[in-house]
Amino acid sequence: MLIKFLISLLVIVPYVFFKSKKSLHMLQQNWYNEGNRYLKWIKNNLKIVFCTVDSLFIIFSIGLICNYKILMTVVVVFYTLCALVYLNNSKKQKVVKPLVFTKRVKRLLFTTYLLYILCILICSLLFKEKNITLYYLLVGLLIYLNYFVVFVANIVNRPVEKFINYRFKRKALNKLKSMSNMKVIGITGSYGKTSSKNILNDVLNIKYNSFATPKNFNTPLGLIISINNYLDKFNDLFIAEMGAFKRGEIKELCDLVKPTYGILTKIGVAHLESFGSQENIQKGKFELIESLPSDGIGVLNFDDPLQVSYNLKNDCKIVTVGIDNKDVDFRATNIKLTSEGTSFDLVLKGSTKKTKFETKLLGKANIYNILAAIALGYNLGIDLDKLKLAVKKVKPVEHRLELKKMGTINIIDDAYNANPDGTKMALDVLYQMPGKKIVISSGMIELGEESDRLNKELGEYMKDCDEVILLGKTMSKPVYEGLMNVNYKKENIHMLDNIEQAIKLINKENGAYVLIQSDLPDIFS
Description:
By secondary structure, the chain is of the alpha/beta class. Helix content is 47%, strand content 15%. The two termini are 44 Å apart. The chain is globular. The protein has three domains: 2-159, no CATH class; 179-393, UDP-N-acetylmuramoyl-L-alanine:D-glutamate ligase (3-Layer(aba) Sandwich), CATH 3.40.1190.10; 402-516, Mur ligase, C-terminal domain (Protein-Tyrosine Phosphatase, Chain A, Alpha-Beta Complex), CATH 3.90.190.20.
């Protein structure tokens, strides 16, 4: 009977893999429970975690009233059906950012299976035919609670991950030490980091051999991977994007790579929930500038009140940029936005001379990013003529105010942007375009207690759009309320579940400009 019991459990292997894949996906997107993000996600998504098809495992109690052969057949059929249901649902489900099968994820999957094997091993060692129903119930319960089994696997693997990360860190530090002539540039802010990083990299490469961290590699491990796997001994400059969810994390990154130069994009309310207050966000972002050496250079945006008002505890050189603030070192004036791109005149402090710059990039936010790149490039010895050429060649950043064609529709892809200032700037870009204007939005996330208020304001700001498509009824509810506050026509609002439905709807709109303002990450969908 024991052999038959173990053979019957083989059918659970595929389903455990499918379910663990989903759990690991959420764990990965929640930074492997850093700051208890994964547990908070579980708390906020009880329906997803507990209302699953395998919750019917309780039917295994049928073994109490029938023979074991029938029970084994029920188990085999049940988990086969569960696997088929999962596969069918996964085909329909949209994944914004799929699970990346990193070595860490593979180790977690291995440990997850070990926990299940341990449970089955205990059942085998204690096996008594009369208790077979209880064994099935125990295994079924652990499969049902897979999100928590993966959580335990993450705890079990933590010492291993710390050891591996320590080895990687030592390797990265030794590599940086061997490249003593290379200078490091840190970039942080509540938003605009990735765009600023890519723009700066394009600009600096007109004179230097510059390298920027790929994608959104902005954590300690992300920087370590960038250094170990991508940084080249011929690089003159290393641009490190720096992200944070709480105070002290930017300082940790600076201690790792020791930047000589730093750019602060914009301080806002992104990750307000984890930082706790805007003051903590402000202090956290300035950890970059306060980590610079005395011969370093910090570039600040002086249109940002939180940067102007900060009492800086550092004697490094500060270079300021702005549009509205006239008392800055590098100022953009005479800004012209069109569907083809942006142009502006650059004025240096103490000079009346204007230098015209042109770029394919859209939006006021990108002008700030370009100004920061010009300011640092100029201070690193690149003349204005070369900077003009470099700015003109800057490539649009994927999913960040990226203008592209989809048939006869003009898409302004800003799907990776979800902050108050950035979303309004994106709408300003849309309003500059000719023809029908449509926005697709799911609202803004991770804004803590301010979330409802800020999303209502976003809805109010959409009043000049011809049509509004909202994704996710729960998440976008405050945006809808904001639209109602300004008496927006209900018939021009479409409440949909996902981006695929939105694309089908807009396909009929020839020549329209469609702003994809944000798309829900998988942890919110």
